[in-house]
Amino acid sequence: MQTLLKILLRYSNFLVFIALEVAAFLLLSWNNVYPRSSMLSTANEVVAWQYAQVNEIRSYFHLRQINEQLANENAALHNQLATLDSMQTGESFHYLPAKAVQMTTNRLHNYLTINRGSKDGIQRGQGVRNEDGVVGIVRTVGTHYSVVLPIINTHTNLSCRFAKNDYIGTLQWNGKDSRFAQLADVAAHMVVNEGDTIVTSGLSPVFPEGIPVGIVESSTLKEGDSYYTIRVRLNTNFKRLKYVEIVQNAALNELEELQNGLD
Amino acid sequence: MDWTKQLIRYIVVMLLQVLLFNQLQLWGACHPYIYVLCLLMMPITLSHSASMLIGAIVGLIMDVFCNSLGVHMAACILLMFIRPYLIGLIVNDKDRLNEQISLRAIGMEALIKYVVILVLIHHLAVFMLAAWSWQHFGFVLLETVVSSMITISIIIGYNALKYK
Description:
Distance between the termini of chain A: 52 Å
Structural class of chain A: alpha+beta
CATH architecture of the largest domain in chain A: Beta Barrel
CATH class of the largest domain in chain A: Mainly Beta
Shape of chain A: globular
Distance between the termini of chain B: 20 Å
Radius of gyration of chain A: 22 Å
CATH topology of chain B: Arp2/3 complex 21 kDa subunit ARPC3
Largest sheet of chain A: 6 strands, antiparallel, barrel
CATH architecture of chain B: Orthogonal Bundle
Helix content of chain A: 25-40%
Number of strands of chain A: 12
Number of helices of chain B: 6
Structural class of chain B: mainly alpha
Order of helices and strands of chain B: HHHHHH
Strand content of chain B: under 5%
Number of domains of chain A: 3
Oligomer: heterodimer
CATH superfamily of the largest domain in chain A: Rod shape-determining protein MreC, domain 1
Largest sheet of chain B: none
Order of helices and strands of chain A: HHHHEEEEEEEEEEEEH
Number of strands of chain B: 0
Number of helices of chain A: 5
């Protein structure tokens, strides 16, 4: 017993080191698998408030661009309203405007923080778009702020289809350039042209069908490959992202319950 | 060493880190983490375990600002674990080393060695843990070298100005 105690004391620093590192790696893996702690992310009130203040100051330098963006957005919304009025499709999607508080574009795992949280009815898994196209999916929800996983994060997978023939593919990002993403799972028998429009597939309840994602920049089919390598120019300019809209599907909970019931 | 001074320095450095250096958009590979300055310049009279614990807290706070839970924490603990051994290796004249690790106490050559080695280890750990795969290893190395150069210059510059 005494020898054991002596050994423990002798290596106490190393044991503390191991214990602390184990704690850090537990947090790390927990965050990768189960990212729901809003306290320990930029959805944290203090941290997000600080970023919001910085953004407030910075936004004065971008007023002209913001005005232009707002005008464009207004026009786009009016168009949408007009189409919706004429169609009366009975779809249950609502759009909630939000402001981007913080965004990184130059990392492998980029995140976007927005100034809406659970008090505005934001839920994990809701889609986020702006007037140009898809932005990402809500990942962590705080009371007043949320963190969004944008499509330019190597963790993101988004089901998309070709506007011309409804062929489905998966949009991923390789971590290199925030203007381009990659479309996977498009089989070799498809004809892919430059300039083909990619839109959301509507297969998941996150986004309605047909929100623009990007256009095909280039496609290559190597000898013997059964799938294309497709480079998609994204519609959304993540470096200039200021205002976004959260896509709220009134049927999201119901659909999830139904799908869980199937398992 | 006065702990209020340490705390004030930490707050100033963290403000610079979060408001300025985290916003840098240079070449996509430049993410200097200058907050390690506070850890590197911490008094050496502190016990080994206590300094690792401080490293863990400082890293965790940084993680909250970066959405990278655990990454900075792990790297900072590693840095604080290695620190005393490294000081033992590179500082020959230990009599002059009382309480503080400073330019005056250990000289320019030893200080540069100390800062370069620890910053490289810390930055490499951060970028590798953040990437969490070997797929981007080339980019991680580039990121480490570019960012470390900036962090190292700032920490050496800080010391040179302080002990001119």
